[in-house]
Design a protein that fits this description.
alpha/beta; 6-stranded mixed beta sheet; 5-stranded mixed beta sheet; 8% strand; globular
């Protein structure tokens, strides 16, 4: 009867309806009824926490209809359990205390001990460990007096959790193993699932990775079979962290996302917040410091509300580390010291020791070597005594770095070799690469051959980790602080300077640049037109955000210039809304990549050797690959005849100043026709001055090797902004002597040359004239006249949907539209179609087989050069979409001269002239009418010649 009554009461919904239903029937409100409702709450906290809270409130409301202390105590327990599951620990503790007091007043010692067993966990989450352990002993005595072995095992589980939270993993395992034996004897599958999760947590921290992974799988299966999906998802949450410990970043991020989504759908905000917190730790390793800093405040607010000091201390730690890496040392010190104090209050010696290591790195940066050494030594002792061998090894590595900075290389080497000895038994690629890199630095002066092998090992571990990072933005960011080892091994090769070493240096340069782009162009992914089931909801969100973004762009573009505070605030609000949508789209793009590229490690990048690159060259062609560091410029000159390398002391700052000065001169053409007409002579002189400076820095030293050759330019770093074809020798421009094409890397060059030309001769032309582009319509019409069999999308026909529909099976695609380069967010650089802006993210989802895509809009070929020499902009999207080559502009091209340029270019193409030759012919033709390079030199050919 009670079970049927429970179902009826739950169907009624709110408390008023229940009280009306029970009016005059208070006799049915028995302790048995309340206990059945409490059981329902216990079931619900495993599947639907929000519903559990509702039923617990209802239970308390029903219990108040009668004056029965036992019913009241049971209802109090129901409320406390629901609050606990919902992360409301202070509220849970209050109701547990009331329930315990009621049981003690009734002389029910065993029930009071049950409540205490649960209070132990709540006190743990509140950081009151000593109190929790003392109460656990009281409950233990009561359970032993009553012979309650299962309750003792549950208590041991809770005590084990306290020791795990204190990072005393061996002690935690003692309690878990004791509990496990009881649960196994009783064949309690649900309890076995929970305890196996806990045992796996402890073993993972003790570096028993394979055992932990198997236990998580077992735990998940047991919990699912026991009807406990929320607990099963918690096992997956812990498995996600184990994957991170293994540096299997892709799998870890995907699983955290899956677990977070599940818990949000089931009302478990606590575990969802824990997923976000652990993702912060991964983002730190991926060097996504802005993401960490922007997310820490939200995470801090959540855990402050939940009153979880342990998690608050971790968030403060992550924020301090992010500030440290962006160079804000004073602010980093405040956060790291604050986190250290919180862990000290928690009584967590191990995590406190880890904070000491982070603070020691800060001290090392400040040159306070003695303080850093003391902190490292103390931390090493704590980790060693706790059996945390990898953390102890990390402490020794930091001590080695201190010794090196002190000028004690032998001691530094001994400490680093001790770390390597530890790593023979424990897999830790993140630690191994740092150790090999340090040893390489310590060895380079005395034994170059050994140093080479050490650097090579460091890079092997870097690339092993990189293989587990699939989104290209993540991969680029991850390499940010690891490129130094590539610079050092390249320098080492060129110091030895044998033919073999020069070839090796070339290969290392290729492995250091545009790796993510090479991976994108090499891999095969699913057709975006047929999304997987997991992508369908993402695509819906993508469409929504994309439509909202277009609407917001239009609103912003149609705003009048700010004239008062109200319009200024309105613009600021619009810009904030735009940033939010852009971030949402960028996040979805990364999720698409995580899904479509899979979780398994990627294959090594297909980077080329000099011999492989040479096979792609024509007899009259020379490839110039540049590599720019803070204090040197290396120029690799590769032809059919061989490889030569020139290394010179040219600083990055020196090149940067000249490039910036040239860009400033080119931007003066935006001042308007009157200004240009008055100052044309001085504009020409100034531009040629900086173009000659760059010629002297970049090409003059290798000019004897370039005579009579066509040039393939592989820029690096700032050099991607240099128009090499427009460099001025003092008598003529480079394009007067040479045909010039470009590529992000030799590997990309080879991939583009290998693309087969499409069988179709179809040409697609889009023209979107605007008030500042009066000649773009004429340009589009003229190109269409040259290719009468082509398709023209003009004005309102030139929509994003039309481009998507018509883009495939064209040999040539020409887009004459306004272009915008976003220095603040380069992957949202875009071309203005009739109905929307076409950004990298839109192009990425297209599939092309075009031999040539021409983007005649302003800045269409400009990219932000990210770490690892990754080019972030429209060009990246079109190359990935399938274009074999692009013609695009490096600056805001002049509308009239662009139209004339394109007419000459396409006339040459129609006559069968190769693209690179046609581009030179167009530039020389326009140069006869317009002397200044602004008019004739903005367009570059990238990719297939």
């Amino acid at each position: 009867m009670d079970r049927l009554l429970v179902d009826e009461l739950l169907r009624l919904g709110d408390g008023d309806q229940v009280r009306t239903f029970l009016q005059g029937r208070h006799e049915v409100v028995t302790p048995e009824l309340i206990d059945n409702l409490r059981d329902k709450v216990n079931q619900l906290i495993r599947v639907d926490i929000a519903e559990a809270v509702r039923v617990a409130d209802l239970t308390w409301s029903i219990a108040n209809l009668v004056q029965d202390p036992l019913a009241a105590a049971l209802a109090m327990r129901a409320r406390s359990q629901a609050f606990w599951a919902n992360g409301q620990y202070e509220e849970a503790l209050e109701w547990f205390n009331r329930a315990e007091a009621s049981y003690r007043e009734m002389g029910m010692e065993l029930e009071a001990a049950r409540v205490v067993r649960s209070k132990v966990t709540v006190l743990m989450y509140l950081g009151r460990y000593d109190e929790a352990l003392a109460l656990a002993e009281e409950a233990r005595a009561a359970f032993e007096r009553h012979g309650q072995l299962q309750l003792l095992a549950q208590l041991d589980t809770n005590v084990g959790n306290i020791y795990h939270r204190l990072d005393e993993y061996e002690k935690a395992l003692e309690y878990y193993n004791r509990a496990r034996a009881v649960f196994a004897e009783c064949n309690d599958q649900a309890a076995m699932g929970v305890i196996e999760t806990n045992r796996a947590n402890a073993l993972s921290m003790l570096n028993q990775v394979s055992t932990s992974a198997a236990l998580y799988e077992t735990a998940r299966d047991l919990l699912i079979a026991s009807g406990m999906p929320i607990e099963a998802a918690k096992a997956e949450y812990n498995l996600a962290y184990l994957l991170y410990i293994q540096r299997r970043y892709n799998e870890s991020i995907r699983l955290f996302g899956k677990v977070k989504e599940f818990h949000l759908q089931n009302g478990s905000v606590v575990t969802a917040a824990l997923c976000d917190m652990d993702l912060l730790e991964i983002y730190l390793e991926l060097n996504l410091y802005d993401d960490v800093l922007s997310s820490c405040d939200t995470a801090e607010a959540v855990f402050t509300q939940l009153r979880r000091q342990y998690e608050l201390a971790k968030v403060k730690t992550f924020r301090g580390l992010a500030k440290f890496h962006v160079g804000n040392l004073p602010a980093a010190a405040i956060d790291l010291t604050g986190a250290r104090e919180l862990f000290a209050k928690e009584g967590n010696r191990v995590y406190g020791a880890l904070l000491d290591l982070y603070i020691s790195a800060l001290k090392l940066k400040e040159g306070k070597n003695d303080e850093a050494e003391l902190l490292c030594r103390s931390a090493h002792e704590i980790f060693s005594s706790a059996g945390l061998h990898l953390r102890a090894a990390y402490a020794q590595l930091l001590r080695a770095q201190v010794a090196r900075q002190r000028g004690e290389p032998d001691r530094a080497r001994a400490l680093a070799e001790e770390v390597l000895s530890c790593l023979q038994e424990h897999e830790a690629p993140w630690l191994a690469f740092q150790c090999y890199h340090l040893l390489g630095n310590l060895t380079a002066a005395d034994d170059k051959a050994k140093a080479y092998l050490l650097y090579q090992s460091a890079i092997q571990y870097i690339e092993e980790m990189c293989a587990h990072i699939r989104p290209d933005v993540y991969k680029s960011s991850f390499l940010k602080d690891k490129l130094k080892v590539y610079e050092e091994i390249i320098e080492l090769c060129l110091e030895r300077n044998t033919p073999r070493d020069r070839a090796a240096a070339f290969a290392w340069v290729e492995r250091a640049k545009s790796r993510s782009l090479v991976d994108l162009l090499s891999c095969t992914t699913a057709d975006p037109a047929t999304p997987s089931d997991q992508d369908v909801p993402l695509l819906r969100r993508w469409t929504t955000f994309r439509e909202e973004l277009n609407w917001l762009y239009d609103r912003l573009n149609n705003q009048e210039p700010p004239s008062d505070q109200r319009t200024t605030l309105r613009q600021a609000h619009l810009q904030g809304e735009i940033r939010a949508r852009e971030q949402a789209l960028a996040d979805l793009h990364r999720q698409f990549q995580l899904n479509s590229l899979g979780s398994s490690p990627s294959q090594p990048s297909v980077t080329v050797s000099p011999e492989e690159a040479r096979q792609c060259l024509l007899e009259d062609e020379v490839l110039l690959e540049f590599y720019l560091t803070d204090d040197s410029l290396k120029t690799f000159v590769l032809s059919k005849q061989g490889l030569e390398v020139l290394s010179r002391r040219v600083s990055r700052d020196e090149v940067g100043r000249t490039v910036a000065a040239l860009q400033f001169q080119l931007e003066k053409f935006l001042y308007g026709p009157a200004y240009i007409s008055r100052h044309m002579a001085s504009l020409q002189r100034s531009a040629n001055h900086y173009l000659q400076e760059l010629y002297q820095l970049l090409l003059e030293p290798v000019q004897p090797m370039l005579a009579g050759k066509h040039l393939v330019i592989i820029p690096h770093d700032l050099l991607h902004y240099v128009p090499f074809h427009a460099l001025w020798t003092g008598q003529e421009y480079v394009i007067d002597r040479h045909e010039v094409s470009y590529s992000p890397s030799a590997s990309v060059f080879r991939l583009c040359q290998q693309k087969e030309s499409p069988s179709s001769d179809q040409v697609l032309v889009l023209g979107v004239p605007g008030h500042n582009l009066p000649y773009s319509e004429m340009e589009a019409l003229r190109v269409k006249e040259l290719f009468p069999e082509g398709r023209l999308l003009l004005r309102e026909a030139a929509t994003r949907e039309a481009l998507y529909r018509c883009a495939a099976n064209n040999r040539i695609i020409h887009i004459a539209a306004h272009g915008l380069f976003r220095y603040d967010n380069p992957l949202f650089s875009a071309l203005r179609l009739y109905d929307s802006w076409l950004s990298f993210y839109d192009v990425y989802n297209m599939r092309l087989d075009a031999d040539l895509v021409t983007l005649s809009g302003c800045h269409s070929g400009l990219s932000q050069v990210a770490q690892g020499d990754e080019l972030m902009g429209l060009m990246r999207g079109f190359l990935y979409a399938g274009a074999a080559s692009l013609v695009a502009s490096l600056w805001a091209a002049h509308d009239r001269s662009t139209a004339a340029f394109m007419e000459v270019f396409y006339q040459a193409l129609k006559e069968g002239t190769p693209k690179r030759t046609a581009l030179r012919r167009a530039a020389l033709a326009i140069k006869k009418e317009y002397d200044h390079p602004y008019h004739w030199a903005p367009f570059v050919l990238v990719g297939k010649r």
